[in-house]
Amino acid sequence: MNKNSISKKLLTRVLSLYFVLTFLVTGLQILAEYYNTKSHINSELLTLEKTFSSSLTRAVWELNTQQAKDIAEGLVAIPMIKGITVRDENQQIIAQLGQQFDGTNPNSANPQQGGLSTFSESYFGHTFPLIFEFSGRTTEVGSVTLLSSNQVVFNRIEVGIYFLIGNAMIKTAALILLFSLAFSKLLSRPLFNLTQQINQFDIEDPEAYKLHQSSYEKNELTILETAYNNLIDELVIHKEKLAHVQGDLVSANLKLDEQNLLLEQEVARKTSSLSTTMLEMEQQQRELLTQKEQLQTENNRRKQTETRLIATNQELTSLISELHQAQERLLDAEKMASLGNLSAEISHEINTPIGISITSSSYLEELLKKLELSVSEQTLSKRELGEYIDNSKQSISLLVNNLQRALELISSFKQIAVDQTSNKIRQVSMAKYLDEIIQSLHPKLKKTSHRISIDCPTDLTVHVHAGAIAQIFSNLIINSIIHGFEQINRGEINISVSRYQQKIVIDYSDNGCGVAPEQLDKLFDPFYTTKEALGGSGLGTHIVYNLVHDVLNGSVKATSEPNQGLHYHIEFEDMS
User: Fold this and answer.
1) Residue 345 contacts by C-beta under 8 Å, 6 or more apart in sequence?
2) Which of 146-150, 362-366, 552-556 comes out lowest in average pLDDT?
3) Which of 22, 130, 312, 482 is the one with CA 20 to 30 A from 4?
């Protein structure tokens, strides 16, 4: 067959497209197998964390280095573990076995996310903290980094890769064979048979050389065969007519000439009709090939567009994920900055009662020295003893009151600080806890004439994230002081807390300057602030929104009018 035959061109293009698709699909299957196996390794690392974290935590807490090293050796013996590093709370290495990385900080990964950290192109691992619980409180005593490698992943999926490649090769070979047989049976062989029969045509016996195909399908070859056979039939008829006219030549010589002329005209017309039909068939075939090439080009273009769209979508997803992570880090930094400011103000506030206590102690010491001198010189009188007793009582009373004041400040701040850095759920007496929150904000409130009114049943208790409650009220009160009471000397804040069925309902309102409607729509948006020039971060109300929705699984709504104050309505369910 000619090398430029139609069947070979069609077969080459179809098989080339199939080979490309098979290569892409096989590559995607191998990539999916790789990430699936890596996910299983991550699950196994998390299982090892649950299995050995308790014993490692106990060993590090008890400073039992040998036990920690023994456990580390046992973990390194596991085939998928290529290295392990155990550190104490000061990030000092206690045990380090297997693969090591200079300059790589194993704590750079977030252990609470439970994901894998990439240390290099060939190695990845999982870092988790060692948390020791003592007397109801938890302390991070160190961390552990488990290291694995891509070689472990490749070893696990090696057989699967061979299977996928072998499967693709078998399918491709089978498809090539099937297409070759199909093209040979449906196109190449029938065309060859038609050509052979036409080449054997004999004008003396046209009836014996009609085209006969073994296939009975209705296709273009059948149309061509029918047209050719019809032409043969017409030739036979005209041949018979010619013989009849020749037999009648003697009697109708003139008529014979006319019949010959008519015969020649009819043959020319039929030949022309056949040629036109053949040309039309060739034109249709060329048009079909052109349309097919256009369809293939359009299909390839759409696939390229789809690939670009998928890549762009993945980039957008990655950027959104990074934006969310950056936003969470900013929120955490804002919370810690708020806690740091509160710590500095509490420290300054404690200095006053402690200073008074030191002064009272010094004065009491001087009185005692004078009393000792009078006793040693035997000049002590009843009047001096009475004055000493009165002055001592006043000094002791002043000392006790100020130390009690410092103790209350420290106790309130300690509880609030612990709650804000912990996500534990505990039972909280709302009335008492609100007093502690306001007590921790006393350094900010004492410089103003603002007043806070609380309407909360004394017996209202709730199981909740106490830290979230402390951060919500701290942000709301500080926002009222900074924004709401900017031009007001005597502001009023009203807090109402009640229980409705299983829900806790909080209504917080102030009589500040309020918020305009266009500002109210953006109140909970991150980084939106009217104090940007004065260092405002715009995260206060956004933190409140996230704590209510994400931590307390509740809802918060804000309503306001200019010069009518701002009102927050918060609802969340008891977590008991």
Assistant:
1) 443, 444
2) 362-366
3) 22
Q: What is the pLDDT of residues 179-213, one digit of tens each?
A: 778 777 777 777 777 777 777 777 777 776 676 66
Residues 6+ apart with CB under 8 A from 334: 537, 539, 540, 543
Kindly report, residue by residue over 114-123, the tens digit of the pLDDT: 457 777 778 8
Q: How confident is the model at residue 2 (pLDDT cuts 50, 70, 90)?
A: low
CATH number for the domain including 503? 3.30.565.10
SS3 (DSSP) at 492: strand
Q: Dihedrals φ, ψ of 149, to 5°?
A: -140, 165
- Say whether 521 sits in a helix, a strand or coil: coil
Task: Tell me the Ramachandran region of residue 381: left when phi exceeds 0, alpha when psi lies from -120 to 50, beta otherwise.
Answer: beta
pLDDT at 103: 43
Instruction: Enumerate residues 6+ apart whose C-beta is below 8 A from 325.
Output: none
Instruction: Give the per-residue pLDDT at 331.
Output: 53
Q: Do 140 and 88 lie in a common domain?
A: yes
* 8 A C-beta contact, residue 147 and residue 84: yes
In angstroms, the CA 568 to CA 172 distance is: 67
| Separation of first and last alpha carbons in the chain | 84
Instruction: Say whether pTM exceeds 0.70.
Output: no
Who's near 379: CB < 8 A, 6+ residues apart? none
pLDDT for 216 equals 57
Q: Which helix (H) or strand (E) holds 45?
A: helix 6-61
Answer yes or no: is 346 within a domain: no
Kindly give, in sequence order, each residue whose CB lies less than 8 Å from that of residue 96, ignoring residues fewer than 6 positions away. Answer: 72, 83, 84, 85, 86
Both structure tokens of 65: 């280095």
